[in-house]
Every structure is written in C-alpha cells, then in structure tokens.
Write a structure and sequence with these properties.
By secondary structure, the protein is α/β, with parallel strands linked by helices. Helix content is 43%, strand content 17%.
Length: 327
C-alpha cells in the first residue's frame, strides 16, 4: 500500500519541489491542496499524477478533509501573498499591513496544525518555519519570520501529539530571489558591467537555499529521519560579493562590483514601505543567523546530517535562464 504525502503551497518553489521529489519516489502518492481545483495550475499537476483537492487555509474543515489518510503533511504558510494582496487591494492601512499579515499567517498555521492533529496514522508533519528573530538580536520589522516561530510555538504548546511527529525545515534566502525586482537583483550599469546592491558590506558569508531544487530532497531526508528536529536548509554559503562574482563568471558578463546601500534606501526601493523595512531588516538578520549557527549558539541539523547533497550556487547559475535580466 502506497504512502501519501499532502503538499500545501504546491504551486510555489517549495511545494512544487516537494511534489516533484515524491512523485519520483516508489511507494508514494502525492496530493496537493488548492483553493481552485479547476485552475490551469491544478490541472497541470493532475496531468503529472497528483491528486488535487480543494482546501483553504482559512477553513479548518476543508483542511481536515484534504489531510485525511496522509502519512506525511508538508505545511507551508505564506506571509507575502497576504501582504501583497492587502497592499494591492488597499484593505488594510499601510502602517498596519505587517501586523495584519502576521495574524493571518499565524492563524493559517494554527488551522493546519489543528487539522493535521485529526489525521489517524499520520507519521510526520513537516512545517516550513523560521527561527524567532529575538534569538539573534533586536529586530523590530521581521513579522514574516516571527509569525512562523509563533506557529511552531503553538504546535509545541497546544498540539502535544502532533508535536511528537513534527520537524521544522528552515529555508534561507532563496537563490531564486533575483527574479523579484529587489536591489539584490544584478543590474547592468551604463558601462556594461553588472552590479548588486544590499545593506551591509557584502563580504560576510550567508546561507542561501536553492528552494526549487533542494526543498523536496530535504523534506524526503526529514521524512526518513527521526521527528522533532530543526533543519537549517541551506544549500550553499557565500557572501553577496561572491554571489555576484559567480553570477558574472557563469553568465560571461563583466563584474562591476557590490554597492552598499543604507537600510532606508533598501526599504524605499520596495513599493510598499512597511514591507521594504521588513525585507531590509531580513537581509541584515542573515549575517547574524550564519554567525550564530557557526558558533554553535543554535543547535540545528544541516543537510549533510540527513544525507542530502544540495545544489551549489554555481550549479544553480549554470542551469538557470537569466535572459530577462541579461537582455
């Protein structure tokens, strides 16, 4: 009898990677959740052999139905979709967007945990979380990080049986983030060279995750490992200067250099000011996370500890189409 993994967020980088990985695993079937099973994206997954079912993170009963008979649940909550929707639809005051999305994401996580707790025979609940920012310093704007920590707190404090089956996978900055029009996207200068801008000096090592390539294998590794662990799902370690050098080398374009910008300038580059603060602070936090893990202040598993070989950034660059920013 085949085992079943239910994947939330199946159309995103993380969820799609998990689905693709388990579709290739003998003895596994895959079920994906969607708010609209009739959508083109849902139909595309069905064509690959995924059972697509309707579920809404705001509706516990729909989640209970979608999760039934699962052996494993991969649970993903999404602060950013809530944030951009609130900004575009202007349903929330600008200064209240972060708190609004924090509360919404935490509720989604609680709903998923409550629904998962009703599944008989569930062996593993794997949540895509992040650490509480106070672990690393005083950060006031990182609502999308602390929301995920709050969800894990809820599981530990209110779902004792589910907690015994839970593991936390914590992704770092996506290698794919260059696509999202932030200062860290390489830009061609007037002289033909390529530059990248971010807060900080750009020379400190940071964790990066190849979300599309590595999330699936890492989740599979966690399924085959004991529960109750936290995985730092980093694929490679490099500074922003190294990032740009590798990008330029692999794409055969001239290296222009790293440009340090202030926290405020980074924040202003994002159309929604509060979310700009959120992203700017997130990049500052990355340095503290790496240093804390290396110093042993945070006891986290690394991919090698669960037997998973991850993609290097050079490999990512060599297999990625950057034409839309090289044209």
């Amino acid at each position: 009898m085949s085992k079943l993994i239910v994947v939330t967020g199946i159309t995103g980088n993380q969820g799609s990677s998990v689905a693709e990985t388990f579709l290739k695993e003998s003895g596994w079937s895959v079920r994906g959740t969607t708010r609209d099973p009739s959508s083109e994206k849902a139909k595309a997954w069905e064509a690959k052999g995924v059972e697509m079912v309707k579920a809404d993170a705001d509706d516990v009963s729909s989640l209970k139905s979608a999760f039934q008979a699962a052996t494993v649940i991969f649970a993903l909550t999404d602060f950013w979709t809530l944030a951009w929707a609130a900004a575009q639809q202007q349903t929330v005051k600008m200064e209240e967007i972060q708190e609004h999305c924090y509360k919404g994401e935490v509720q989604h996580g609680k709903n998923m945990a409550d629904a998962a707790g009703t599944v008989q025979g569930l062996e593993r609940f794997i949540y895509s979380g992040l650490p509480r920012t106070s672990t690393y310093g005083e950060y006031k704007h990182s609502w999308h990080i602390d929301s995920k920590a709050a969800i894990m707190d809820y599981i530990r404090d209110h779902c004792p049986e589910l907690n015994k089956k839970t593991s936390d996978i914590q992704l770092s900055t996506y290698m794919e983030n260059w696509q999202w029009q932030m200062p860290t996207m390489p830009r061609k200068a007037a002289d033909g060279t390529y530059h990248l801008a971010c807060v900080g000096k750009g020379d400190k090592p940071l964790y990066f995750t190849s979300a599309k390539h590595d999330t699936g294998p890492l989740v599979l590794g966690l399924v085959n490992y004991k529960p109750g662990v936290v995985l730092s799902a980093n694929s490679d370690v490099l500074s922003w200067k190294d990032w740009l050098k590798i990008f330029c080398e692999t794409q055969k374009v001239p290296y222009g250099g790293y440009d340090e910008i202030s926290f405020d300038d980074f924040a202003k580059s994002i159309p929604v000011p509060p979310l700009g603060q959120e992203l700017a602070e997130n990049h500052a936090l990355l340095e503290d996370v790496y240093e804390a893990v290396q110093a042993g202040k945070q006891k986290l598993l690394l991919p090698k500890d669960i037997g998973v070989k991850t993609q290097t950034f050079r490999d990512y660059c060599e297999t990625t189409d950057f034409s839309k920013i090289l044209a």
